[in-house]
Amino acid sequence: MRDRKRMFVTGVSCLIMLAFTGCGLLRQEEEVKNQITIPSYDASGASYGYVKRGDLENAETLFLKLTTTEEHGLRFGISGISIDKVYIKEGDSVSTDQLLAELQSEDIKNEITSLEAKKETIALDIQHTEQLLEETRQRTEYIEEKEDARQESIGRYQLQLQQLDNDLLQTQGELKEQESKLEKHRIYADIDGTVARIERYGEGFLSDEKQVFLTLQSTARQFSGNTKAENDFEKGQKVSLLVNEEEYPAQILRAEKSEGVTEVDVRLQEGYTIPEDCTYGEVLWSTGVVKGVLYVPKNAIVTVGEKSYVYKMEEDGFTNPVEVQTGTVNADYAQIITGVEQDDMVMLYE
């Protein structure tokens, strides 16, 4: 805080307690023989804010820790097939879902092409038959003795449509089966990263589904943590990663729920970097809005042990610590339940 006067507590020994968050050092507070001591100080020239009343977004916080560089071993999904193409080499940069290598699979590709053409033909036949059926239903010029013939035509077209629908479903199933086979013949990147290693391959080398064929190394810094709070985290979800009070765009790599706990991996988006000494981060997410509550800027709150305080400006220009009870806390503001009133002026920490 600007112009904060140096404060001394004399006559007793002091235990200075330090708290770390992100990669920055939190404010230091003094604890003397388990009795909290927070001196007053002159507030002239310091920044300040006001206690306000309004609606406040409720948020939960996921605390994360930087994990080691990640390596992913990738393998083919089938054994005994010749390796056809490898599209990358060691040291290349790759992106998630990029095709890296594939086995010989011309017969599967040809079958997929044939099934796709068959599917398109069936779809056109369905469209044509539906048109004929509708035209037959709309005809009113039939004389009474030919009505039976019209109904017979309608029934025939309906049967044709039913058979075509069955053919389409069967073709779609066969197509899905062939596409699944093709996936086992291919390797795709599952992360953004660098190709660290590729196993030997060439003439006479066959695939082995139990053996890693190539290894990727993540180029992005990854954070991991867990939470018991209710959440809707999903793989691929975009989030804001808060590191040392700075926000960075990030993406959820993994979100697995088990026995009430969600394990989460978060990766910084490509092209963004954070200071090397930063090892902790946070993700905040909204869980609703509380209405008509008192709140102050988050940086007005001083936490000492299990208690929270604000420095309230008095009429004489000095500030005194006031114990407060807090509620909802989000990235910018903290709800005040008791301790201060609306329009009270409070000191802000840098």
Automatic annotation (TrEMBL):
<keyword id="KW-0175">Coiled coil</keyword>
<protein>
    <submittedName>
        <fullName>Biotin/lipoyl-binding protein</fullName>
    </submittedName>
</protein>
<feature type="coiled-coil region">
    <location>
        <begin position="132"/>
        <end position="181"/>
    </location>
</feature>
